[in-house]
Amino acid sequence: MIFIAPRYIVIDDKEDHLRAIMNTFQQLGTSCVGLHYNQENDPDANLFRGVRCLFIDLHLIDGQVSTDEKRHFALIANILEENIHENGGPFILIIWTEHPQHANDLHKYLDDNLDKKKPYTHPLTVLSLDKTSFIDVDNGIPTNTEALKNAVNEAITTNPQLAALVNWELDVLKAAGDTLVSLMSLIPLENKNSTSFSPSIDGLLSKLAREAVGPTNIKADSRAALNRALAPILNDRIINQPVEKSVRELWEKAITKHSDSTPPTVNLHNAAQINRMLHIANKDFEAILPTDWGAVVECPFKDNDVDFQNIFGITKNNLFESEFKIKSELIKECKLKLVRIGAACDYAQNNTGPISYLLAAEIPENSTKKGKNTSPAIWKSPLLLLEDAQVPMYLYVHQRFPYTVLENNASNFTPTYRIREQMLMNLISSTSNYASRPGMLSIQIN
Question: Is the model's pTM score more than 0.85?
Fold first, then answer.
C-alpha cells in the first residue's frame, strides 16, 4: 500500500452539491474524497482510515427535512459506526446542509446513541455549513465561492487542537519528503536515467542498511534495516523544521492549560494510560517478535516450579514475597515475565551468542507490602495500564536474575508487548550501573 488515506471526505446524495464543495477544497490547495451516497451501496470503509474532517449532508435519504429527524440522524450514526476506523481519528463532523439548525440536535443524538464500545466513532464536535448561503441548491452552482472557501477553512480550523494535530501530521509528511529528497540527492546526476537510476538507488539503500545492521542481517528485515539508518534523520527534521508565525499561533491556541495555576487533574488510570502510550508497543498494532529488543514475553516456567528453582535458585512464591515484597494473598494477581535486553549494537547487528533476558513481574498497583522497600536490584517502571486491563500495574525487573537462551529457543516464547526505546534504555542503564557499582572494604571503629 503506497497510498495515503484521505483526510477530508464529503458525502452527499446530490452530485452537483458534492462537486461544489470538492471544487472548493481544490481551490484551497488540498484534495478531498467525494462520495455520492447511494442507499444500495455502502461507502468503502478503507477511505475513512485517516479522516480528520467529515462533511456530510444531513438528509441523505429523501433529501427533505421532516418532522422527525431521528431517522436521518440514525443513518449518519450508522455511517460513523460502520466506517470510522478504530485506529483513526480524531475527527470533526461538519453538516453540509440546507437545514443547519439541526446540528446541535444531531450532536446530542450521536452523544446518546453512538456505540459506547466504539469511542473512536464520536466526533470531537459537530458543526454546520448552510448550503443555501454558498450554492444554488437547485443546480449546485456556487453563488459565493470565496465565502465558501473561507467557511470551509474556518470549519476545519475551528478546533485548534485538531488543526494543530493535522498540522503535525503534515510536518511529519514534509519531513519524510525532505529526507527522501536528501537521499536522492546522493545519486550522481549521470546515473539519473532510465537505465541506471533504480540500480543506483538500490546500491545506496544497500550501503545504508549494511552500515546500520551489518551485511549478514539485512535479509531478515531489509525495511527495518533501512529505518535504523533513516529514522534519526527523519526525527531531527521533524523537530527542527522552520515554523511559520501562523503555525506557532495555532499551537499556542491548541496548548493552553500548561500555564494554569491548577493543572488538569490526572488520576491513576489516566496517568497509566498515558504512560502506556509513551512507553509500550502493543502487539496488536506493531510487529513484535520474542527476540526483539525490549520484548516482554511470557515466562516459560509457568507449570514447572522445579525448573524455575533450578535456574534462579528461588521458588516463585519466595521471589514474590522476599524480593518483590508482594502481599502473599495477592501473589496470584501478579504475572511473571522475561524482558529482552542487551547491547544496542549486538541487537542491531544480530551478533552471535545467547540472547539475554531479565526476570520481571507485572505487579498490580497497591500489591506491595507497606513500608517494605524493594532491593536496589529491582527496576520499577512507571505506572502502566495495559490494553484490556482493569487495574494499573508496575513492571518490576530484577537485575540479579538474568536468563540467557539461544535465539532458536527464544523464538518459541510468546511476546505480550514491547518496551519502547526510551524506557528500555533507562532499564539497561540501570542494569549496567547496578552491575558496575563499586564496593569498598573498610574497617569500622567501634
Answer: no
DSSP-derived secondary structure letter, 97: E
Q: Are 22 and 28 in contact (CB under 8 A)?
A: no
Query: Of the candidates 79, 2, 74, which has an alpha carbon nearest to the alpha carbon of residue 35?
Result: 79
**Which residues on adjacent β-strands are paired with residue 34?**
10
Query: DSSP class of residue 322?
Result: I
Question: For the chain, what are the domain ranges?
Answer: 8-158, 165-257, 268-435
Report the C-alpha gap between 32 and 10 in whole angstroms.
Answer: 7
The four Cα atoms 322, 328, 330, 332 give a dihedral, to 10 degrees, of 90
State residue 83's pLDDT score.
92
Residue 394's Cα: distance from chain center in Å?
21
What is the CATH T-level fold of the domain 8-158, as seen in this structure? Rossmann fold (3.40.50)
Find cell 496470584 and name the residue. Answer: 332
DSSP state letter for 326: B
Distance CA 351, CA 158 (A): 53
The pLDDT value recorded for residue 64 is 53
C-alpha–C-alpha distance, residues 125 and 359, integer Å: 47
Classified as helix, coil or strand, 331 is helix
pLDDT confidence of residue 82: 92
Look up residue 142 and give its amino acid. Answer: P
pLDDT on residue 303: 62
- Mean pLDDT (10-residue bins), the chain, 446 residues: 76 87 79 86 86 89 66 92 85 86 88 90 87 81 80 79 86 91 91 90 91 80 87 91 89 83 71 92 85 91 78 89 88 92 63 85 83 82 88 93 90 92 91 78 71
φ and ψ at 367, to 5 degrees? -95, -15
Q: At residue 156, what is the residue type? A: I
Which residue in 321, 233, 229, 288 sits closest to 416, CA to CA? 288
Of 314, 333, 340, 351, nearest to 403 (Cα)?
Answer: 340
- Residues 288, 295: Cα–Cα separation, whole Å: 7
- pLDDT at position 347, please? 55
Q: Which residues does 389 contact at the CB level (< 8 Å), separation at least 6? A: none
**361 touches 401 (CB < 8 A):** no
